Amino acid sequence: MATACPPSVMVVEDDAALLETMVDVLSWHRWPIVGAAQDNVGAMHLASYRPDIALVDYELKDGPSDALIELLQAQNVNVLIFSGYARDHLPSKFRRHAFLLKPFDVLTLMEALAQFDPQHYRTTG
Q1: Which of 55, 70, 79, 119 is the most exposed place for a label (fewest CB within 10 A)?
Q2: How confident is the model at residue 123 (pLDDT cuts 50, 70, 90)?
Q3: What is the CA radius of gyration of the chain?
């Protein structure tokens, strides 16, 4: 019986240590990583790979991620936004997306991803 591939993920976070940790955790849980970026410019390039899920820090060092999120929405990519600010800090057009308030732990991240692929979470979480 063929095994379905889990959804591919891209990660956008400007804190290098947190970015590395998230990529390591996702890899350990067998989520295919399309790529990781620390700024909007790099993330816009990664979006061309059309991941299934994008984990996006809203406030990056080079500015808010509005254009990136809009591009991902246009590509029908599932977006999970995270920020050190509360959800109501986001523009209203982005508040419908899954959201995590930083800091968050590994279990919280895995549970948030489970909404996009519950089967993968049950087998690896």
Answers
A1: 119
A2: very low
A3: 14
pTM of the prediction?
0.90
Q: Which pair of structure tokens corresponds to residue 17?
A: 């240590």
For the segment 80-88, the average pLDDT, to the nearest whole number, is: 96
* 8 A C-beta contact, residue 56 and residue 12: yes
Residue with tokens 């919280």: 108
Give strand pairing partners of 86.
Answer: none
CA–chain centroid gap for 45, Å, is 15
Per-residue pLDDT tens digits for 6-28: 789 999 999 999 999 999 999 99
Asked if the bond preceding 103 is cis, omega within 30° of 0, the reply is yes
> What is the 3 state secondary structure string of 11-62?
EECCCHHHHHHHHHHHHHCCCCEEEEECCHHHHHHHHCCCCCEEEEECEECC
